[in-house]
Amino acid sequence: MSRVPFYLKERLESLREKVLHEEFEASKLPSWERVVLTWAVLMAFWIVISASLEMRDLALGAAVTLMIAAFMRDLLTEDIRRSGHILEKLLYFAFIYLPQYLVIMAFRLLESNLKVAKNVIFMDINPGIVKIKTDLHSDTGVTILANSITLTPGTLTLDVSKKLGETYLYVHWIDLETLNREKAGEKIKGDIEEWLKKVFW
Amino acid sequence: MLEVLLLLFGEAVMVFGALGILRFPDVYTRLHAASKCDTGGAMSIILSLILMMDAPALVRAKFLVLAFLIAMINPMVSHAIARGAYRYGVKPEVVVDMYAWDNP
Known about the structure:
heterodimer, A: mainly alpha, 2 domains, three-stranded antiparallel β-sheet, B: mainly alpha, 4 helices, elongated, membrane (chain A), transmembrane helix (chain A), monoatomic cation transmembrane transporter activity (chain A), cell membrane (chain A), Cation_antiport_E (chain A)
């Protein structure tokens, strides 16, 4: 890739972007599914915030959230992968994927708190900034991955760059163990990326 | 019993986070202490408050919204501070700096 001349490189970049865009358009959900998914999320938020189960409040909330969901259907669900029936997807997400992610992140957060306490007491730090590659391309997926990396032990995301259809993350690592990109990626990302690839594009 | 344990754990984590902000050498390592310890400590204190409070379940679920907002916003803000500090010109005390290699 580094030996390609300049004019060819630009052309190749535009071509690859086009292919990525077409793939992305083909993997989108149909619009009524997007409306229903957004409506479910907004309705759950309304029930928790209003904290009442009376018929009057529920009807008002359903009407208003349906109106908002019809307008803002691309805001939350633009990057979700297309697979399966919508009810199946909702149930899978609510009862399998979300608890899995919460359990993984809870134990990682506990471990990272203990690790920061250990670093504060012994001051055995050896910081460095490394560059790792991810297989995710959508904005929501990269955002959630960067936030999860910030909460995992000993790492902090600095910046994201997208070049030639590949996404790279710059990570500040407080206890530098390896400079190899694949090994560092495995150590930093862990199984969160596998989880995110099932849901997001 | 569990709620008292969670409360004590959260406060100990917050104390270690404050110590880390005082003891670490530069901005980026201090941000480690700030983001992780604040998120973990605040979330465990919120969980203990959920267990302690005697109120209907829907009212207690509002605390979960608060915990979700903390868990989303805190890493985002630390990321923004780190990137802003780097762009402003604060040099990190590091062994290897691949971000400076790619953005000269």
